[in-house]
Design brief:
Layout (H helix, E strand, L loop, with lengths): L4 H8 L4 H17 L4 E5 L2 E6 L2 E8 L3 E7 L11 E2 L4 E7 L6 H12 L3
Antiparallel strand pairs: 1-2, 2-3, 3-4, 4-6, 5-6
Helix pairs in contact: 2-3
Length: 115
């Protein structure tokens, strides 16, 4: 896994154990779904790129961790889980909320396939 130290430092500094665990899991999910992914800090958030194009971003707020998948147009999204414009879909994950990592990985693979 090609990890960026700035992203590692960002995740470690989140403070709340659940945010650190969730962000670490999301990061691993991205790397497993897109083996050639590159990661970097941009706009103070971890961004994940494939072929120089945005694939995903993790954004941490006070009460939730947001996970955005780019290049989302034309894919079937669970409406009760994701929102946003057609080109990018965001999932807000609160503490204790279950995440279907298998489904999330499948969506990420589909969205990033044409990047």
């Amino acid at each position: 896994m090609n990890q960026n130290q700035e992203v590692s430092d960002y995740i470690e500094a989140l403070g709340d154990a659940w945010k650190i665990e969730l962000s670490t899991n999301l990061r691993e999910l991205v790397h497993n779904a897109i083996p050639e992914v590159q990661e970097r800090m941009q706009y103070k958030k971890p961004h994940f790129l494939k072929n120089g194009k945005y694939a995903a971003v993790i954004s941490v707020a006070k009460s939730a961790v947001s996970f955005t998948i780019f290049n989302a147009e034309g894919l079937a999204w669970p409406e009760d889980t994701f929102d946003g414009p057609p080109e990018r879909k965001t999932m807000e994950i609160a503490q204790g909320q279950d995440v279907d990592e298998q489904a999330l990985s499948a969506l990420l693979k589909q969205a990033s396939a044409s990047l």
